[in-house]
Amino acid sequence: MGDRTVSSSKVSLAALTALGIGSMIGGGIFGLPQQMARAAAPGPLIIGWFITGVGMLMLAFVYQRLAISRPEINAGVYGYARAGFGDLVGFSSAWGYWLSAWIGNVGYLVLLMASLGVFLPGFGDGNTALAIGVASVVMWMYHVLILRGIREAAIINFIVTVGKILPLIVFIIFIIIGLFAFKLDIFAHEFWGSGAGVGIGDVLSQFKGMILVTVWVFIGVEGASVFSERARTRADVGRATILGFLSVLALLLAVNVLSYGIVPRSELAKFGDPSLAGVLEAAVGPWGAKFIALGLIVSLVGALLSWFLMLAEIVRVPAQEGLMPSFLGRENAKAVPVNALWLTMGLVQLFLIWTYFNASTYTRLISLASALILLPYLLSALFQVLVSLKGGTKVKAFDLVVGVLGSAYGLWLLYAAGLVYLLYTAIFYVLGLPFYIWARREQKVKVFSTAEWGLVALFSAMSVYAVHGLATGALSL
User: Fold this and answer.
1) Which end of the chain, N or C, is less surrounded by CB atoms within 10 Å?
2) What share of the chain is helix, strand, coil (3-state, %, to 5)?
């Protein structure tokens, strides 16, 4: 590993905020109208967004407060889980986060190719041979870029983030100026989704149906905390987290609510991706669809860069701390974890090829990617509770409230996601155990404590049940 100066790898507040926004504003917001319309009517939608907004704000505050109160902990979701609950739990949090992120990146690449298909022939839904080939080239171009250095890539992402938010701002401003396109009777029709033949269940079912979608569009709220070690100050990590969250929440609310007033929910639920293109087309004509497709292309370019950056980073720290094989922590002269990046890109490449042969199962895996990150989020919130309580007489009421409400929201997410998704995520967590055992043997320490053996047994039992259900057809996503 070559020499490097500290200043060359530090990331500014603006770049940290851009990384967070770039992580959350990817393809999710462009498909939000159709996905939400399939799950919820306007009334439950508004209440669900309120619950989501408060819950995710608490999680954002969790990462903000922990960045200030525990500045010595690096890599966010991994570091907090390990500090609060031990080595195996910390490893599992990092493993689940990493799996969720690279599975999601495959989705972004396929969606990027589908968006190109609006303008160019041969790309189809993003999983044709041509699309997979071009996606592979794009992916390896990111690989080369990131190898040049974390800071340089973050600056580029900041520039791209500004460019990709502009199409959405233009869209929202245009709809607000053209209020004639928003019809209150369309928005209020079947307001609670209780009409005959609506088929979306009661209010609670609608809330639950929204959950994995809202988690998907907000994954990345912890983005700045992943780069905490490289931030100029720990206070910048907290500020970037809150600024990024509030910016994205405002955009999501505007897009979702306005869409329900332009196109009836029942029709909106039938739109293809990106459904936002169909909404704007309904408002202004055919050029609107191409405008949104172009915005989506620019958006995905930034989101992919943010996530590829974080993918390598979330593996680097646990590898350097002895919880993942040491080869994954090795850095080049630009402070980039090269082996972690090669492993991640290799898996993304394999999965891209897999989507060519199994495209029909892809959207289910996107929901699985959301489910995989639920446990890391809950562990971070629970750690905030522990940190607050350990303050003794210096316990700050706000910090404790943030931790308790964030934990409650994390538990609600697990409940709403459903047992089936939890069973399937157990399989992925068990698949990570060989890496943990490898790392522990490298360190020549005891692999599992008594309590950790209990966790291994629990996840193994859940995995066996899930595999049996998958094989017999008793369980399906």
Assistant:
1) N
2) 80, 0, 20
Within 13 A of 262's CA, how many CA atoms are on the CB side?
29
Identify the CA nearest to 89 among candidates 436, 472, 469.
436
Q: Please write down the long-range contacts of 253-257, taking CB distance under 8 Å and 24 or more positions apart.
A: 253/49, 253/53, 254/172, 255/29, 255/32, 255/33, 255/168, 255/171, 255/172, 256/32, 256/33, 256/36, 256/45, 256/49, 257/45, 257/46, 257/187
* Rounded-to-integer distance, Cα 26 and Cα 22, Å: 7
- Which of 75, 87, 84, 82 is closest to 315 using CA atoms? 75
- Identify the pLDDT of residue 395: 63
Give the rounded distance of the alpha carbon of 445 from its chain centre.
Answer: 33
pTM: 0.81
Per-residue model confidence (pLDDT) at position 384: 94
Contact 306, 157 (CB under 8 A): yes
Chain segment 106-165, per-residue pLDDT in tens: 888 988 888 888 888 888 878 889 999 999 999 999 898 888 876 565 566 565 556 556
Residues in contact with 31: Cβ distance below 8 Å, sequence separation at least 6, in sequence order? 111, 273, 274, 275, 276
Helix (H, G, I), strand (E, B) or coil at 331: strand
Q: How much is the pLDDT for 8?
A: 44
Number of neighbouring beta carbons within 10 Å of residue 25: 26
Which parts of 203-274 fold into alpha helices (H)?
203-218, 223-226, 234-260, 265-268
CA distance 425 to 418: 11
Higher-pLDDT residue of 170, 429: 429
In tens, the pLDDT along 381-394 reads: 999 999 998 865 56
Dig out the tokens for 167 from the structure.
Answer: 């199409």
Which CA distances in Å does 278 have to 39, 94, 121, 282, 425? 18, 37, 20, 6, 33
SS3 11: strand
> Which parts of 321-373 fold into alpha helices (H)?
338-357, 362-372
Of 381 and 3, the structure prediction assigns the larger pLDDT to: 381
Do residues 283 and 262 make contact, with C-beta atoms less than 8 angstroms apart? yes
Distance from C-alpha of 234 to C-alpha of 388, rounded to nearest angstrom: 18
> 5 or 53: which carries more pLDDT confidence?
53
CA angle 308, 313, 318 (to 5 degrees): 140
User: pLDDT tens for residues 210-222?
Assistant: 887 888 777 766 6
Measured distance CA(367)–CA(417) in Å, rounded: 9
CA neighbours within 13 Å on the CB side: how many for 272?
Answer: 9
Residue 459 belongs to what H/E stretch?
A: helix 450-472
CB-based burial, 137-149: b 16+ in 10 Å, e otherwise: ebbeebbebbbeb
What are the pLDDT digits (tens) for 233-252? 767 777 777 787 887 888 78
